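Researcher: Here's a chain I'd like modeled. Treat it as a single chain, no partners, no ligands.
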Amino acid sequence: MEDVSADPYLPYDGGGDTIPLQTIPKRGSNYVMSNGGGVASSTTHLLDFLEEPIPGVGTYDDFHTIDWVREKCKDRERHRKINSKKKESSWEFSKSVYDAWSGWLVVTLTGLASGALAGLIDIAADWLNDLKEGVCLSAMWFNHEQCCWTSNETTFAERDKCPQWKSWAELILGQAEGPGSYIMNYFMYIYWALSFAFLAVLLVKVFAPYACGSGIPEIKTILSGFIIRGYLGKWTLLIKTITLVLAVASGLSLGKEGPLVHVACCCGNIFSYLFPKYSKNEAKKREVLSAASAAGVSVAFGAPIGGVLFSLEEVSYYFPLKTLWRSFFAALVAAFVLRSINPFGNSRLVLFYVEYHTPWYLFELLPFILLGVFGGLWGAFFIRANIAWCRRRKSTRFGKYPVLEVILVTAITAVVAFPNPYTRQNTSMLIKELFTDCGPLESSQLCQYRSQMNGSKAFNETPNRPAAPGVYAAMWQLCLALIFKVVITIFTFGLKVPSGLFIPSMAIGAIAGRIVGIAMEQLAYYHHDWFIFKEWCEVGADCITPGLYAMVGAAACLGGVTRMTVSLVVIVFELTGGLEYIVPLMAAVMTSKWVGDAFGRAGIYESHIRLNGYPFLDAKEEFTHTTLAREVMRPRRSDPPLAVLTQDDLNVEELQAVISETSYNGFPVIVSKESQRLVGFALRRDITIAIENARRKQEGIVLASRVYFTQHAPTLPADSPRPLKLRSILDMSPFTVTDHTPMEIVVDIFRKLGLRQCLVTHNGILLGIITKKNILEHLEELEQRAELPVISHAPFPHDSSFCSSH
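Model: Modeled as a single isolated chain. Structure tokens:
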């Protein structure tokens, strides 16, 4: 049978949040028990090296959850030490100043790197995307628009056909028109799309498996305290940046906005290692990652304030006030750098920035709300369909061939997309065209109104105008594009290439919104005497803006998929630069969330977190059941007794036997087997490191050496080997609850304090333990018992492809 661990997409399956539930054999009668009250004569020559910090103690293994309480205590102790020494010398004072400013410095570096990488990705993706259609002879490094900047043509249609830009048919066949040129351009389009996609998936598979997907589900899990080594590393950053450009240029139904959050967090993680304040404290590092995610959204949408709110609402688990300030500063720096690069040449941070100058009217709230209903229905449908496909990918042979899957989806996308001009072009360009209102120089079919043919009138004198056949043809093409995008996005999101969901969702909503907007516009033109139009839409009055409907539809569909609310409205508001459209956006986004929540409260990212089995407790979910801690704790009645360590009744050999025979995370320490009184909690990793360190630095530590967790050594025979003191690694204040504590309170404690485990006692006597895994299993068991339509957790830890569903 093939070893599944050889698959580079599979993470280490060691388990991180489980505690042992079996009995340790009792000690023999040759050893004298003591509670540590007396001092044996042999302790006078003990080298108590453990009073000093042990290298490695307090760190975490891969795929384990951090101890938020311990990390915060470590940071407070470090801060106290720096403050107590800063008056001793000028050097110590400068160190304290450096420590105070290191937070601002690391978010500044993160913002600078995020903005620079975002600009590089935008420029490279635009160039490669235009390479599928042709090349600029005068300057190979120019894309289509840059190549034609020097043209003297007056309209966009004429300028796009400038002599400097040559299509592949012109270069290979020497002709620009005709069936032969169309077939050649068709072939070259598919060739370049397959080449970009194949190179992207190959780089991901070979060099950085963690570079696939959007990364936001993993970022949320990491910010909640989970350790995924390498996910935010240098190789992941490099490969994600390169393959994101290739994936976007391949024409797949994906976007770069979600992966830009992953790229920014990689920058934040790398820069945090330059500062000991963050590199040695996992909780502090997550404050930097929260700021980095804000910078990522800031450069993705050109929305610094929306980025901060996105970090607060969507991804961050712990968000103190100082993190809010630093997130805002990081988003500001990133946006400033991107604005300086000006990748789109329009002095804007995004390609589809748009401004509207006409007001909206009260009767338009009805179609806006209907767009919200569509967004909610689309979101619920997409989540269920995509999760079902990702689960099928995991459970069938098809999931074992990620390269073949990417090639197949890319080929289908390219073959179907090329004949339709609205699916052939870059998705960001499509959104820009759908958002933009028709102007006198617009060459799009969406702007072929009959009134444009009347040269005696100014363009804006008859804003509400009858549609020409070109508009109706464009609407049919948009309907086909809508169906194609809805279907292909389900199979694209989750491929082994960097893939974001923001842009495809916005494109689907923008297409639906533009269709509704044109329909409303024509309805108002031909039936301006209806009572809903009579008051606002006089003949010749400009009362319907189709581009606004596209924007509202885009926000509604994105909200339906992600269940974002406040941050989404602010992001779209920053895209349009107008306060006037806040109410339509709010109405559509809230409607989409309500409709989507009616089919399931989890958004796409929460659904993928649960599908992958990550230990994530969503703070948004409410616990309404009436169970008690004793019903959830381990061991249960059918389980073996809880495995514990006694405070001074084990030797090194027995302790190592316990560690080698189990794969659990830590052990409760009790006074004795008879009393079962709780003393503290010791982590498996800390015990292993402490024993190895003692053997290197202490003489006389052998397998028969007594291990004790008390302040003083137990009474031992004179010929006994030197005992080993492990008190410094013992958590003497573990969180405990009584067996009658309601689980509602226990879940709240785990969420707000970020606990890994909680011990259950009765009158001070240890009864059992509750881990985060136990809580997640209990929540799912309650949901299944209530027969709710939920997405089941994968077996914990993961038993499936890591990046198969991002």
